[in-house]
Amino acid sequence: MVNMVSGLLLRRTLLTVAETSSRVSLGTRGQWCGFTTSTTRFSESSLPNPDSVVSYEQLKNMLSSHNVQLFDVRNQDEFMAGRITDSVNIPLGQLEESLKLSPEHFQLLFEVKVPGKDDDNIVFHCQTGRRSAIALAIARQLGFNRARHYQGGYSDWATHEGN
Questions:
Q1: What contacts 150, CB < 8 A, 6 or more positions away?
Q2: How many Cβ atoms are within 10 Å of 154's Cβ, its own excluded?
Q3: Coil, strand or helix: which one is 89?
Q4: Other residues' Cβ atoms within 10 Å of the Cβ of residue 162
Q5: Are 32 and 19 in contact (CB under 8 A)?
Q6: What is the structure's pLDDT at 162?
Q7: I want to staple 124 with a disulfide (CB 3.0 to 4.6 A). Which of 16, 99, 132, 146 is the partner?
Q8: What pLDDT is recorded for position 51?
Q9: Alpha-carbon distance 163 to 144, whole Å?
Q10: In this structure, are strands 69-72 and 88-89 parallel, antiparallel, or unpaired?
């Protein structure tokens, strides 16, 4: 009972804070949270190598076996217009701060478990692969060294899926 009350109070506090921020949405899986733009810097050398890329077939297999933590780093309007099933929307500008959240806050905001730094099933995707490559570089700098990205992005997915 105490945990439930604490959780409700925490959620109410977050909602109150969110009301003072612009364009914040809480409580719906995959919607963004209004964090500030990423401050992580990266160089071209931190962009993904071929081992960090997930193909359409690999992603399809990961999804069918429920062995993927799929993060869509597109903007919320892009996400709402079409998405890969089971993906969670964390726009690129909010990714760094989101990955730094406590497990409790992450789960409260995104309704999924926070990814672990040693997890090998973290995959980022965007529309065409550029933002997901940047997301991967950010995640790698934060210690998520086994994360990957779907280079083809939602455009490739939609083509394969006939959307």
A1: 53, 54, 55, 56, 59, 123, 124, 125, 129, 132, 156, 157
A2: 25
A3: strand
A4: 5
A5: no
A6: 84
A7: 132
A8: 76
A9: 32
A10: parallel
Q: How many residues does the chain have?
A: 163
Could you say which of 126, 134, 137, 147 is catalytic?
126
Residue 137 has a CB neighbour count (10 Å cut-off) of 23
Q: Is the pLDDT of residue 6 over 70?
A: no
CA distance 99 to 144: 9
How many Å apart are CA 113 and CA 103, to the nearest integer?
Answer: 7
Alpha helices in the chain (DSSP H): 2-20, 56-64, 76-81, 92-99, 103-110, 130-141, 153-161
Element (H, E) at 70: strand 69-72
The predicted-structure confidence for 63-103, as pLDDT tens digits, reads as follows 999 999 999 999 999 999 999 999 999 999 999 999 999 99
Give the residue-averaged pLDDT of 119-126.
97
Is 33 tagged catalytic?
no
Tell me how crowded residue 86 is: count the other CB atoms within 10 A of its CB. 14
Residue 93 makes CB contacts below 8 A (sequence gap 6+) with: 35, 36, 37, 38
Q: In the numeric block, which tokens belong to residue 10?
A: 């925490």
Among 102, 95, 113, 101, which residue's Cα sits nearest to residue 149?
95
